[in-house]
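For this section, I looked closely at the sequence of one protein beside the tokens encoding its backbone, which the following lines show:
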Amino acid sequence: MSKDNLRINEEIRAREVRVVTANNEQLGVMMLREALRIAAESQLDLVEVAPLAKPPVCRIMDYGKYKYEQQKREKETKKKQKIVTIKEVKVRPNIEDHDFQVKLKNAQRFLQDGDKVKATVMFRGRELSHPELGRQVLIRMAGELKDIANVERDAKLEGKNMIMIFAAKQQQH
């Protein structure tokens, strides 16, 4: 049983339950009927919070309000999460200087936005016989990005592509 579908009121199966009030006051172990009567008198729900305990622990609370608060908390934690995406910058081993600078600026922008950058050198035909040219391009890029990024994965040849992954350095607050 997951945390979000707790048994409430008549769904509780145990004969005897340990009852706790909304403000954590222990009422002790009692028959389920008695606990349900007490909850109904205070116009609240009886919620089974620890079904595996002997006897199960039930709390008298406003279940609707509890669910609402829980959803609000989940929404807040989701808001604080940052989804990191990997952006790709593709270059060729014999890239011209100006083109390299354009790709470098794109990589810097991606890193400043909090994304990871996958730098790919694409080889065609006989260029593959000189992988050191691709490695030099990636090393040059790593050198240019060293102030704002760390190399997460070193240059590695995969098929006809050589790949290096950069992650933004954490800013000191």
About this structure: The two ends are 42 Å apart (CA to CA).
